[in-house]
Design goal:
- The complex is a heterodimer.
- By secondary structure, chain A is of the alpha/beta class.
- Chain A is built from 12 helices and 21 strands.
- In chain A, the strands form 5 sheets. A 9-stranded mixed β-sheet of chain A has the order 4-3-5-6-7-8-9-14-13, with helices on both faces.
- In chain A, α2 crosses α3, α8 runs parallel beside α10 and α11 packs across α12.
- The longest helix of chain A is centred in the N-terminal third of the chain and has 22 residues.
- The mean pLDDT of chain A is about 95.
- Chain B contains 5 helices and 7 strands.
- In chain B, strands 1, 2, 3, 4, 5, 6 and 7 form a 7-stranded antiparallel β-sheet that branches.
- The chains are: A alpha/beta, B alpha+beta.
- Chains A and B meet through α12 and β20 of A and β1, β3 and β4 of B.
């Protein structure tokens, strides 16, 4: 199903022409309206004439999260406050918050982008959608809300938290679509079961649209089984626009990128050169249609790769794989790069393992240690020490094969790992650098 | 031969090596009105396995599950030996000669007049029961624990 079929299935040549044309326009627009970009473009001698093909985008300087912080709160805006109708921001847990703003047209664009991914996942105007993302400065709640309104679905703005009530609403109002983080979806399933509900029979859910944190294919399977739904991934970040930058179609094989609105590149985060075809690297995004806050070559810190082969759904856009992690989530353990998603992959392949886990990193003397806390359950508990040890040895060995380093798996009691209503906190890094 | 009557239900509980967890387990059993007849605690750095033989195994199992403990049910056998020097040694000699592999064992003293009770977990419980009976070991029946 399409929301804007013509744009979503445009042939690549026309799409690229459109991208080049829009990029030129935006360079001139930013030059005229944002002091920060004017300086940057002047320094590197960039004008709209510098761009003749998509590849020429490499001439532009990168934008980073620090640029947002240095210009906190409104230094990057290209429009006066009179034309701004919405402001969102990051939580600012790791520094000054990143502030983003939208004009009326931006909100319209954003809604259309979300409507595209909702339609791609099979949501229709018959659906009842429960949005269990936090409504607030975080872009997830409102972003999905406005987009799903465009599709014509009935929206329950449940926001996050109070999980029992979430489940009750889901059951009583007959929600057919759930929107939240993948880790919260898993928790909702767990709570439903604690309430003696069988999602297959007692709930009408059929689709889940999940985003805002990296998750693995194994986690998708667990969620799909737990809630008896099809789970779709979507991608976005506030600095770019919010959710809706990319989303999965029913093929569930990579997220279609709205390339008429964004140019994406994959770079090697160390050399900043383009990654080789098909290689993992950092996703870099340039906005082509934003008014309030145009952003050029934003370094997302998300590690992924592109799928350029045509998709059987008919969309012509490139797809991005689920990010395997973020450059700032990446743990360096004894010099080895480790992403939490790699650990999740190993764990979830083990029969009967609990989907709740936490990674504790510490340093003993000069040596980094990594302990993975996994909740025990009857499937993982043996009455005999010998068998118990065999199971733990097996998990440790598989993690060692995947990660290349020794880690220790510890079984902890059920419900002792904190459940998440938003983004899951998977890593506790106790090291002091 | 009816081997079933010699199979004693044992409840095993996973407990994290944390303050108060053992106590919580016994509290659940107390509130359920379950009497512990024999028990053992195997511990490692991170977690322990508590093993119980109780008078009401089903009640114990249900109430521990209800209290969110990780619980398993399995079978052990109980043998009585003379409560005197060499009593256990004789039994172990028999087991050794029969080539039976013990997974673990624990004891339960003062249960019978002048006798001690040993609880054994064998790799193959049916084989163990048959062979031990053929060799005149005194096996206790489950009702000994449940009806005491």
């Amino acid at each position: 199903m399409f929301f804007e079929k013509e744009l979503e299935t445009m042939d690549r040549k026309s799409l690229e022409n459109l991208q080049v044309e829009r990029l030129k326009e935006k360079i001139e627009y930013a030059y005229n309206n944002v002091e920060f970009y004017r300086k940057k473009f002047q320094e590197s001698g960039i004008t709209k004439e510098s761009i003749n093909s998509i590849e020429d985008i490499r001439k532009l300087p990168f934008t980073t999260k620090n640029d947002f912080r240095d210009n906190y709160p409104f230094g990057l805006l290209a429009k006066p406050m009179k034309e701004i109708i919405r402001i969102h921001s990051s939580s600012g847990t790791t520094g000054k918050p990143t502030v983003v703003a939208y004009t009326k047209n931006d909100i319209e664009t954003w809604s259309r982008l979300v409507a595209r991914i909702a339609k791609a996942a099979g949501v229709t105007d018959e659906d009842i959608v429960q949005i269990a993302f936090g409504y607030g400065l975080f872009t997830g709640g409102f972003g999905l809300h406005y987009g799903l309104e465009k599709v014509g679905a009935a929206i329950i703005p449940a926001s996050s938290g109070n999980t029992k009530r979430q489940v009750m609403i889901m059951k009583d109002y007959g929600a057919t679509v759930l929107v939240c983080t993948p880790s919260y979806a898993l928790y909702i399933g767990e709570v439903a079961r604690q309430m003696n509900l069988n999602p297959q029979e007692d709930l009408k859910l059929r689709i889940g649209m999940f985003g805002a944190e990296p998750w693995s294919e194994q986690m998708r399977k667990k969620i799909e089984e737990s809630l008896a739904i099809k789970a779709y991934d979507n991608y976005g970040l506030s600095e770019i626009i919010g959710p809706g930058v990319a989303g999965e179609c029913v093929e569930q094989n990579g997220m279609h990128i709205a390339e008429d609105h964004f140019i994406v590149e994959i770079i090697n985060p160390d050399t900043l050169e383009p990654a080789k075809e098909g290689e993992y690297g950092e996703l870099v995004v340039t906005t082509l249609t934003k008014e309030a806050l145009p952003v050029f070559r934003y370094r997302t810190r998300d590690i992924t790769r592109l799928i350029k082969t045509p998709c059987s759904c008919g969309r012509t856009s490139y797809r991005m794989e689920k990010p395997i992690g973020r450059t700032d989530d990446m743990l360096i353990i004894r010099g080895v790069n480790v992403f939490p998603s790699q650990i999740e992959e190993v764990l979830f392949n083990i029969e009967g393992i609990s989907p709740h886990y936490q990674i504790i990193v510490d340093r003993m003397g000069a040596l980094d240690t990594m302990t993975i806390m996994v909740e025990a359950n009857a499937n993982l508990f043996f009455d005999e020490m010998k068998k118990q040890k065999q199971l733990l040895d097996k998990i440790n060995a598989e993690l060692k094969t995947t990660l290349g380093i020794d880690v220790e798996v510890k079984l902890v009691e059920p419900n002792s790992i904190q459940r998440s209503e938003g983004k899951a906190k998977r890593i506790i890094d106790k090291r002091k650098f | 031969m009816d081997l079933q009557k010699y199979k004693i239900t044992q409840i095993s509980v996973f407990i994290e090596n944390k303050k108060g967890r053992f106590y919580n387990t016994t509290k659940v059993l107390k509130e359920a009105g379950v009497n512990i007849r024999a028990m053992s605690l195997a511990d490692t750095m991170d977690f322990g396995i508590l093993r119980f033989v109780v008078d009401k195994p089903d009640v114990a199992f249900e109430s521990l599950v209800e209290a969110n403990f990780i619980v398993k049910k399995n079978y052990v056998i109980a043998t009585a030996v003379k409560d005197e020097s060499g009593g256990l040694c004789e039994l172990l000699e028999t087991i050794n000669n029969l080539n039976l592999n013990i997974e673990y064992m624990y004891t339960f003293v003062n249960a019978l007049q002048n006798k001690a009770v040993m609880l054994f977990k064998f790799e193959d419980i049916d084989e163990a029961i048959e062979k031990l009976l053929q060799n005149d070991a005194e096996l206790l029946e489950e009702k000994f624990f449940t009806e005491y």
